[in-house]
Structure formats: structure tokens, C-alpha cells
Amino acid sequence: MNKQNLTVLTEFILMGITDRPELQAPFFGLFLIIYTVSVVGNLGMIILTKMDSRLQTPMYFFLRHLAFTDLGYSTAVGPKMLVNFVTNQNTIPYNWCATQLAFFLLFIISEFFILSAMAYDRYVAICNPLLYTIVISQRVCWVLVVIPYVYSAFLSVIITKKIFMSSFCGHNVIRHFYCDSLPLLTLLCSSSHDIELIILIFSAFNLVLSLLVVLVSYILILMAILRMNSAEGRHKTFSTCGSHLTVVLVLYTTLFFMYLQPQTNHSFDTDKIVSVFYTLIIPMLNPMIYTLRNKEAKGALHRIWKNWHALPM
Asked: How far is CA 200 from CA 11, 133, 152, 193, in A?
């Protein structure tokens, strides 16, 4: 392409979730509620697991970081999407678009491996309880979250840099409600084959490896549960994994639906619907799932509420 046909972009236009004006106000109200509940729930989970002395265990250490990643990638997407509902021109500056993509990738990739760390933690707690405090030490906990953060940051920078150092052809309309890698690739006029290959390889690696750790951990947990003689013991043991397993099933089912659908049926409209689910709804559901299905978390909430009411007014 001739150099004169290349345009230096300063901003992008996000198409948003819908172009129907009559739906803008209802969607704004709906997603404002969803995002607010998500922020309150995840911040509450972070504060709760930090304040309550009974929740200073590896399980809640990982849960705190899960809430942090949920809060991170929903905040990378949510506020800008809400602003776009009430503005006439859904623009996002070039640098902000790159920043949004980088932070979204950082937090969403980190979440996969934190979920894997949580599955490994449950495996050790159930299958090797006598060695639990040795195997899942505080140092090991930090290693299991720091490595995903560093790896995710590295991968996020590589993908974002590859995309935004490529040549855009002057087309700046992104067929999405946030700056995602696949819609951005369609705007490139330079070859995007190497970037697509990097995204494909690392996406497959991240999904398969993290899910493999979860599946192996839960297969071993299930085998241990089936060997228990007491039905009450089996129920109590499995209930400790129920919240985590629910979160894993919801997230991975959503992602596999999005990425494994036939190419002939693939559309950006479908991507937008699925993206709303895993960028906004799942971060809202996670703290609810862990609070409602976890007696210790509910007990901590009750103690904080009781202590708060006991304070002199």
C-alpha cells in the first residue's frame, strides 16, 4: 500500500453493544448496576479476607487475588463502556485503547492461572492434609500468584506492542465495545499473520494448561472423596470445592463457547454478547458464589456486621 494512503490514527470509534438509541438508557442502567455490584462485591471480598483473622489461609489468599483480577479486567472495560452509553461519539484515544487492551489481557490471563492455583490448593488440602502447611506455605502461595502476574504482564505487553506498532489503514471503527485484540487485527493493513499466530498459540496454551491443572486436581480430589467411608465426610469435603468448581465451569464454558464455535457461525455480534458475560457478569457472580456457598465467608460477614452495629454511635 502506498505511504500516502496510510493514516496516522489518533483515536478509535467503538461501535458499542447496540446502535439502537432506544436501548442506550436501559442498557446503561442495567450495566451500571452490574458493574457497581461487581466492584462492591470484589472490593468487599478483598477487604473481608484481609481483615478477618479466621480467613488468613491459603484458600482465601488465592480468593483475594481472584477478586483482584475480577476487579481489574471488569474495570478495564466497564467504565468506558458506561461512558459510551451516554455520549454521542464513542471514541477512545489511541493510547487509551492500547492501555485498555494491555490491562484487560493482564488480568484475564492472570485469572486462569489463579484458578489453577486454587484447584491445586484444594487438591493438597484434601489429598495430602498432613503435608498441607508444608506444601502450601506462604512462600509457595506468593510464587503461585507472582509468576502468573509476571507472565501475564509479559504476554500482555508483547501482544499490545505487536498490534499497536503495526500499520493501521485509516479505518478506526472497532466492532466491539472495548479494545480487544481480534477486532483490532481486522483494522491492520500490514500482515497480521505473526500476531494471529502468537495470540492463537498463547491462548491455546493458557486455556489448555490452566484447565488441565484444574481437571487433574479435581479428578484426584474425586478419587479421594470416593474412597471415604462416611457419606457426611464426602459431602463436607466436596462442598469445600463447590464454589471454585462453579466459577471454573462458568468461565471456561463461556470462553470455549466463544473460541470454539465454527468459523462459519462466528460473528462479532456473538462475540459482544459472550464478552459482556465474561467481562462484567462473571466478575459480579464470583463474589456472590463464594459468599453464598461458603460458611466461613458468611460467618466473617456476620461477625463484621455484628461488630459494626456494636460500635457506639
From this structure: 27, 38, 15, 10
- For residue 228 the three cell numbers come to 471415604
Q: pTM for this one? A: 0.87
The tens digit of pLDDT for each residue in 115-150 reads 999 999 999 998 888 999 999 999 999 999 999 999
Q: 188 has which bridge partners? A: 168
From residue 64, alpha-carbon distances to 69, 118, 280 in Å are 9, 11, 18
Query: What is each CA distance from 12 to 83, 111, 118, 263, 299, in whole angstroms?
Result: 15, 28, 38, 26, 47
Question: What does the alpha-carbon distance between residue 195 and residue 203 come to, in Å, rounded to a whole number?
Answer: 12
- CA end-to-end distance (rounded Å), the chain: 72
What does each C-alpha distance from 238 to 121, 125, 205, 229, 296 come to in angstroms? 14, 12, 28, 14, 15
pLDDT in tens, 101-113: 999 999 999 999 9
Sole residue written with cell 489481557 = 105
How many CB atoms sit inside 10 A of residue 22's CB? 7
Q: What are phi and psi of 192, to 5 degrees?
A: -110, 15
C-alpha grid cell, residue 49: 479476607
In this predicted model, what pLDDT tens digit does every residue of 26-43 receive, in sequence order? 989 999 999 999 999 999
287 with 236: CB under 8 angstroms? no
